[in-house]
Amino acid sequence: MRTSSTSAEEVSALLARSDSSGRRRRSSPVQSASPRPAGGGPRRQSSFRDDVGHAASETYLVTRLTFTLLQYLGLGYRWMSKLLALTIYAILLMPGFLQVGYYYFFSNQVRRSIVYGEQPRNRLDLYVPKDIRKPCPVVAFVTGGAWIIGNFPQGTIGDMVSDASQGISYVCNNIASYGGDPNRIYLMGQSAGAHISACALMDQALKESSGQSISWSVTQIKSYFGLSGGYNIHSLVDHFHERGLSRSIFLSQTFANVLQQAGAQAKLLLYEGKTHTDIFLQDPLRGGRDPLVEDVLSVIHVDDELTQEKIAVAPAPRRLVFEWQLQLARRISPF
After folding, report:
1. Which value, to the nearest 10 degrees, does the dihedral of the CA atoms of residues 324, 248, 285, 52 take?
2. What is the strand order of the sheet 123-127 is part of?
3. Which residues contact 311 (CB under 8 A, 6 or more apart)?
4. Domain termination site, one of 229, 244, 267
5. Which of 33, 119, 161, 271 could be bridged to 15 by S-S, CB 3.0 to 4.6 A?
6. Where is this region: Disordered (predicted)?
7. Could you give the CA distance from residue 275 to residue 333 in angstroms, rounded to a whole number?
């Protein structure tokens, strides 16, 4: 997620981060952000010991699924080279990952592994700003993972969309108990998470229009932000088969054009010179002012001039990784 603690402190916003794993057999965590509600809250928060045990079981599960996935993909040169690049990429950025991990496990502003569904991996995290004296705006964040990390072969994309929708429902129906403002809920997805969260919105709209029973409404979402998303999946199948994930395939404006043609208010912002992973990994680890974060906050706080002034004078997030590591990681990124 982007500048998790710092941006939350700066803008006094609840950030709900959601992982986009599949849900059949074992489903993914949808993750979010906020304080324990008065009176105990709708769901029990796990202890640090529970988190460690959960992380160990997840590690075993992911390792087992990795071998299963490799059976599907084959052990060809292209995939092995991508795996090697990913390993080096992760090592280069590890100093930043460790700092973020420390914050995640030990900050009192993080509420981990809130259960939002019946499947074992239906969990979300709540990231809470320091000042919660009044209801805070909420961002439900659905992470990426190439539709396979934490998902395939556990579930189909339809299962992932169902998981994301269930997580959004939990946020819409319970976030007020944690100090969030139910009238200011925003949905954000990144990479595959952008596609999955967009599908969740579309699916929910279809259910509403056909009179089906629903647990949340698209009207509860004030805005949707899609970051580096791949939306036209059919046009990407051959590319996935031949080369794996490329930097260029996620720069499609077709989705925005279709939304505009349908009468929706959609705005496309392209950040020149940015790769697929820059906006959600390298840039946050670099610290300093972030144009993407500022653009998002300008939408969330469009009617709140006082908060906009506070954001303008707030200290910039600190650097977590040296620049040479970021540049090298950027060059070898397999995404």
Report:
1. -120
2. 110-115, 123-127, 14-18, 136-142, 180-190, 221-227
3. 10, 11, 294, 297, 301
4. 229
5. 33
6. 1-49
7. 9
In this structure, are residues 316 and 288 in contact, taking their beta carbons and an 8 Å threshold? yes
Nearby residues of 13 by Cβ (< 8 Å), 6 or more positions away: 7, 129, 136, 137, 138, 139, 300
Are the beta carbons of 221 and 201 closer than 8 angstroms? yes
pLDDT (average), residues 77-94: 85
Percent of the chain past pLDDT 90, that is, above it, reads 40
Q: How many residues can be counted in the chain?
A: 335
Domain assignment of residue 295, yes or no: yes
Helices (H) then strands (E): counts for the chain: 11, 6
**What average pLDDT does range 214-221 have in this prediction?**
93
In three-state secondary structure terms, 150 is coil
Distance CA 201, CA 216 (A): 10
Of 233, 259, 251, which Cα lies nearest the Cα of 335? 251
Q: Find out whether the peptide bond into 153 is cis, omega within 30 degrees of 0.
A: yes
Give the up-direction half-sphere exposure of residue 157: CA atoms within 13 A in the CB hemisphere.
Answer: 16
- CA 229 – CA 178 distance, rounded (Å): 29
| Interval 314-329: pLDDT, tens | 899 999 999 999 999 9
Residue 291 structural domain = 279-334
pTM of the model: 0.74
* Domain identity same for 206 and 299: no
Which position has the token pair 């979010």?
Answer: 32
For the ranges 25-34, 100-109, 119-128, 236-245, the maximum mean pLDDT occurs at 100-109
CATH number for the domain including 114? 3.40.50.1820
Which of 162, 197, 229 is a domain's end point?
Answer: 229
pLDDT, tens only, 235-256: 665 655 554 444 444 547 678 8
- Tell me how far apart the alpha carbons of residues 302 and 318 are, in angstroms, rounded to a whole number: 26
Alpha-helix runs per DSSP H in 175-290:
192-209, 237-243, 254-261, 283-286
CB 57 within 8 Å of CB 32: no
Residue 111 Cα to chain centre, angstroms: 16
